[in-house]
Design goal:
The complex is a heterotrimer of chains A (345), B (387) and C (139). Chain A contains 13 helices and 14 strands. Chain A is globular. In chain A, strands 5-4-6-7-1-8-13-12-11 form a nine-stranded mixed β-sheet, sandwiched between helices. In chain A, strands 3-2-14 form a three-stranded mixed β-sheet. A two-stranded antiparallel sheet of chain A has the order 9-10. Chain A has two domains: 194 residues, Peroxisomal Thiolase, Chain A, domain 1, CATH 3.40.47.10; 137 residues, Peroxisomal Thiolase, Chain A, domain 1, CATH 3.40.47.10. The relative contact order of chain A is 0.20. With 345 residues, chain A is an alpha/beta fold. Chain B has 387 residues and is an alpha/beta fold. Chain B folds into two domains: 142 residues, Peroxisomal Thiolase, Chain A, domain 1; 229 residues, Thiolase/Chalcone synthase (Peroxisomal Thiolase, Chain A, domain 1), CATH 3.40.47.10. Helices cover 37% and strands 18% of the residues of chain B. Chain B has 14 helices and eleven strands. In chain B, helix 4 packs across helix 14 and helix 7 crosses helix 11. Chain B starts with a strand and ends with a strand. Chain C has 139 residues and is mainly β. Chain C has a single domain, classed as OB fold (Dihydrolipoamide Acetyltransferase, E2P), CATH 2.40.50.840. Chain C is 9% helix and 40% strand. Chain C contains two helices and eight strands. Chain C has a five-stranded antiparallel β-sheet with strand order 6-5-4-7-8. Chain C has a three-stranded antiparallel β-sheet with strand order 2-1-3. In chain C, a hairpin with a 4-residue loop joins strand 1 and strand 2. Chain C starts with a helix and ends in a 10-residue tail after the last strand. The chains are: A alpha/beta (345), B alpha/beta (387), C mainly beta (139). At the B-C interface, helix 5, helix 6 and strand 5 of B face strand 4, strand 5, strand 6 and strand 8 of C.
Chain lengths: 345, 387, 139
């Protein structure tokens, strides 16, 4: 029996800081936005964290799907910025969306790909008939050290997917994962900001894993880039997904609807899943979407997704990605620093 | 019930009393009150002390025993009771003392109030005061005391057209009165412009709309009226003592701009005293915030609802006006050591009714009213006194 | 400053605006009440989950907060009348220039406070304006 996406929801905080404003503070050249293809990034409010934005995204998914939250049997929340090191995000989300207490949950972490790992976990339980409905979340209020290259992209956003077998908005036809031990980016326990390998994060990190997972999936399924109407690749900046798409033989038109990073930044665990949501916002039944996440450390999950009839009915019941991308309020660096807790009181 | 009179009163200087502890303040005021009343320690058969939060301000509970001990009364084993109704703790102590004498259980009873607030930082003090509001359903969301009164003010302005300047006039008047009161925390006069330029605390209320953090204590001595002349040439009779309660949280009120507890306590008090509003020569009302005085004179029935804003501006409530309000300087200028405030109001009334209020004396004052509020109206006490 | 059990006890009320309803007199309560003030001992109380839409009755912007909230200043606090009737106190997230009496608001999930850097995080409900919703109201 096919399984897949019953509903989806996203949340992106309304605050933005422009890359040029960050560049101004650190004396960086103003064309850094063009170099990264990231013009602005989302910033959480002072009272938002990976839990609150996960709840907003999950509530949107429940609302869009007209789903009784009591039916949810599993919640997996992937993030690299869980507010608690010990104490699950999933329990708070479960309570806040009104799930009854009969569900299993655990938090996941795999840099930027814990969200797609959560989708896989739910899909496994659903296809094994162990549960009816699972909630997979990718959520992050990511941190970049002041002045670090990451500061231009480290953003906040969440995506939530209800995974089940009935009333599908999109079927997940197949997935394929590729994982190695590659220390391209990390954050040690108790440290406030992640460290990274600079240009090492590129070829041995992002490109190797995204490419291997993408090719692996297409080989497994016998598909080609032309078989897909859309493609979404993890978006750590605006350059990498465009370049990897070209390398793999996907066109700019295929990735355009899902390429949101220039306007919201890298939402980490939310990134590829928000890109997928933006694509589902416009896709028509019968169309196919190719999705590849990437998490430093490192690994990629590739998915082949077919949009179902159900999408038309549910699409307008919750805010689309574009609604969040367009509703913005800009901050200067000082207020941004307050929002991000970079000011010590 | 027996008629009860005040035969003596004392009050410390209000302010930031850095060198004095809660105990020092209690002793200072106790001696003043006893000397004023010609009562000896052996005669005292009851003590009531109003104290809002010894626990938060000086980490001391069991204030009843403490003050009896500090006052040197421990060997006499005088019953000593601490009462608490937030900022109305003092008024409540007065009422409990009146009831004790009126009932015939006690003959010579001291009603005192004390708060030592400056041993903690401003943030801790603000949080301790916020405990008078609903901790779970107001403070938990960031409510502060000024914020709750600011919401009353905002709606009062919206409904009745009360202006920002009218609020400021209350502070200007009370600072003027305070400048003539030697115990007052603030001795300086202010202007409307100064109020309007002071920093915002909780919009629309600014720093100069708010009563300060104050150390202080006050005490009065009560006996049955029929033996009062034994102690005093000018005993002050308590014509009424009334208390009423209301919802703890402001949001649950029938009407956010009316303190129903005040309305009900006033109605009972005027009934007990057999007096009408026009019989009152002056009043001390609970102006923890400028809007508090405006709401108070409306809810006590001195002016129509919605007309309170004009009172100070038009001169009605100034000394020399038809109904002088807060001749002591009020909580605003004289200071607001929360547990002591209700007793200080009685102390001011004793001075006024005896004709001992100096430059701020209300000529011919015969009957006065005191009005003490706990929280933003969860408790209200009204007393009517006469010479 | 709250404590773990005090926060935990009210999680459903704070996360999801669960209050009470007296089925005898049909009055709704939020914050929840155990006793209906109309019916007292004859009350028939049941839990009720409020939708969370409401109207600003009055408000303030706080510039001087207690230690637990000083990082958040300035912030708006309002008394909000829920569409079902009861009134509550809560924060409204918007610019101080934006909030008005009569503004319609809807709930959002936010951090209400934290027990310092080591303690638990208090999550719960705040409100945001429903865009373009200010209407004159009779109070």
């Amino acid at each position: 029996m096919p399984a897949g996406i019953v509903s989806y929801g996203v949340y992106i905080p309304k605050y933005r800081i422009r890359a040029e404003e960050i560049a101004r503070v650190w004396g960086e050249s103003e064309d850094i936005a063009q170099k990264l293809n990231v013009f602005e990034k989302s910033v959480p409010d002072t009272d938002e964290d990976a839990v609150t934005i996960a709840v907003e995204a999950a509530r949107n998914a429940v609302k869009r799907g007209f789903v009784d939250p009591a039916r949810i049997d599993a919640i997996y929340a992937g993030s690299e910025s869980h507010p608690y090191a010990v104490k699950p995000t999933g329990t708070i989300v479960g309570e806040a969306i009104g799930a009854n207490h009969e569900f299993t949950t655990a938090d996941l972490e795999f840099a930027c790909k814990a969200g797609t790992a959560a989708v896989q976990a739910c899909l496994g339980l659903v296809t094994a008939n162990l549960i009816d409905l699972g909630l997979a979340i990718g959520t992050d209020t990511s941190q970049g050290a002041p002045g670090d290259a990451l500061e231009y992209t480290a953003a906040a956003g969440a995506a939530a997917y209800l995974i089940g077998r009935e009333n599908l908005a999109a079927e997940i036809e197949e997935f394929y994962s590729f994982t190695t031990d590659t220390p391209d980016f990390w954050r040690r326990e108790g440290m406030p900001y992640p460290e990274h390998g600079g240009r090492f994060t590129g070829e041995p990190g992002y490109f190797k894993h995204v490419t291997s997972a993408a090719q692996g999936l297409m080989k497994k399924m016998g598909t080609k880039p032309e078989d897909y109407d859309y493609a979404v690749f993890h978006q750590p900046n605006g350059k990498f997904p465009v370049r990897v798409a070209g390398q793999l033989g996907f066109s700019k038109d295929q990735i355009e609807p899902g390429l949101v990073v220039p306007w919201i930044g890298n939402t980490y665990s939310g990134s590829s899943l928000i890109g997928l949501a933006a694509t589902l916002d416009v896709a028509r039944p019968g169309e196919r979407i190719f999705l590849v996440s990437f998490g430093s450390g490192a690994g990629s999950d590739a998915f082949s997704i077919r949009v179902e009839e159900g999408i038309e009915e549910i699409r307008d019941r919750a805010p689309r990605v574009r609604d969040y991308v367009e509703n913005v309020q800009y901050l200067d660096y000082a207020v941004y620093a307050k929002h991000k807790g970079k000011l010590r009181l | 019930m027996r008629s009860v009179s005040i035969i003596g009163a004392g009050c410390t200087r209000f302010g930031e009393r850095w060198e004095d502890s809660l105990r020092d303040l209690v002793v200072e005021t106790g001696i003043m009150a006893l000397e004023d009343s010609n009562v000896s320690g052996e005669e005292i058969d009851g003590l009531y002390v109003g104290n809002m939060s010894g626990g938060r301000f000086v980490e001391q509970e069991h204030i009843g025993a403490l003050i009896s001990d500090c006052a040197g009364l421990s060997r006499l084993h005088v019953p000593s009771t601490r009462v608490e109704a937030a900022c109305a703790s003092g008024g409540l102590a007065l009422r409990q003392a009146v009831l004790a004498v009126a009932s015939g259980y006690s003959d010579v009873v001291i009603a005192a109030g004390v708060e030592k607030m400056t041993d903690v930082t401003g943030g801790v003090a603000a949080d301790a005061l916020a405990a008078a509001a609903d901790r779970e359903w107001e403070c938990f969301f960031g409510a502060t005391f000024p914020a709750l009164y600011a919401m009353i003010a905002r709606l009062h302005m919206h409904r009745y057209g009360t202006t920002r300047e009218e609020l400021a006039q209350v502070a200007v008047k009370n600072h003027h009165n305070g400048s003539m009161n030697p115990i007052s925390q603030y001795q300086m006069e202010i202007t409307v412009e100064k109020v309007l330029r002071s920093p915002l605390v909780a919009d629309p209320l600014r720093v100069l709309d708010c009563s300060p953090i104050t150390d202080g204590a006050a005490a009065v001595v009560l006996v049955p009226t029929k033996i009062a002349h034994k102690y005093s040439d000018a005993p002050i009779k308590i014509l009424a003592t009334a208390q009423a309660s209301d919802t703890l949280a402001l949001h649950d009120r029938r009407n956010i701009t009316t303190l129903d507890a005040t309305v009900h306590a006033a109605k009972k008090a005027f009934g007990q005293a057999g007096l009408e509003r026009k019989d009152i020569d002056l009043a001390e009302v609970h102006d923890a915030f400028t809007i508090g005085e405006i709401a108070a004179i409306e809810d006590l029935g001195f002016v129509e609802k919605g007309e309170g804003g004009k009172a100070a501006e038009e001169g009605l409530t100034w000394i020399g006006g038809k109904l002088p309000i807060n001749t002591s300087g009020g909580l605003k200028a004289c200071g607001h050591p929360v547990g002591a405030t209700g007793i200080k109001q009685a102390y001011e009334m004793v001075l006024q009714l005896r004709g001992e209020a100096g430059k701020r004396q209300v000529e011919g004052a015969k009957v006065g009213l005191t009005h003490n509020v706990g929280g933003c109206g969860g408790t209200a006490l009204v007393h009517i006194l006469s010479r | 400053m709250s404590t773990v059990p005090r926060f935990w006890r009210h999680i459903s009320q704070r996360y999801n605006l669960v209050g009470t309803h007296c089925s005898k007199c049909d009055e709704y309560y939020y914050p929840p009440r155990t006793i209906c003030p109309n019916c007292r001992r004859t009350a028939q109380m049941e839990d009720h989950k409020f939708k969370g839409k409401g109207t600003v009755i009055t408000y303030t912007t706080i510039y001087n907060a207690t230690d637990d909230f000083k990082r958040q200043t300035p912030y708006n606090l309002a008394i909000i009348e829920l569409d079902e009737g009861p009134r509550l106190t809560g924060q409204v997230i918007c610019s101080p220039n934006e909030i008005e009496i009569g503004m319609k608001v809807k709930p959002v999930f936010r951090i209400l406070g934290k027990e310092g850097d080591r303690g638990i995080i208090y999550y719960g409900t705040k409100f945001v304006p429903v865009e373009g919703s200010v209407q004159p109201i009779t109070l």
